[in-house]
Amino acid sequence: WLVVGSQYIVLDGVYRSQPKVPEYCEKEQAYHDGTCNRRHELICSLKLDKVSLAGASAGGRMTLAFVAKYPDVVEQVLLQNLTGGKKAAENLSKSYFDNVISIAKENGMEAVAKLDPYYSKLLSRGLPSLQQRRWNQVVQTNLENTFLPTMTRSREFLWRAVDPVLGFSEKMLSEIASGSISFILVYSRSSCDGMHTREVMQALSKALGGAPLLDNPKGRIWVPKAVSFFMNGSFAEEKRENIPQKEKEKNRMI
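Given the sequence above, the corresponding structure tokens read:
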């Protein structure tokens, strides 16, 4: 991804890398608004007139939320493997939220850490010190006041999901596409988990006015194409040394 002469900032959502969810996040929209506002403040503080954004899965939905709220500061957007559609809503609700809520109610937070597939996998990653810190964060999360309400709200959010992308109707996407922002979409999964589907990316492409979609390219061949898109506004692959100096000197944030 890195191109000489460009500037990059990688952003993580608040508490995204931690299993504990903030109690103040009463509504999904409030969380999106707060995150978008903080990122806009960052862009303004860096005195950037225009930025390019990239997001995958839930990060792609957050990117769409930012574009919808602050379109004037966005020039280009890459979206990869977004979650969406009724199929995803049904699978997530049944396979994840129903399961973890049941475990938590019956046996508490320690059982969640041990028995729930998502948390048990998360807690097995990284160095032992990181595993222990994450373990403590999970088991110390307040069950009644934080964990269960958050999981329940998330499940209800999925029940209200609309196609083609989770949280974004065709009307919302059409309004996003009506501006001058350039989009590139990537579907790069080697197997489908029922939540990140090709159909979602195809529907997203259509809703965004026929935005180009790199559909399941072999390996990571889509990476140089994406770089070319950000640097030159096209899919033409160029070697780094052939990129014009004036392009290298542009400030970009992905």
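The chain has eleven helices and six strands. Try to locate this feature in the token string yourself.
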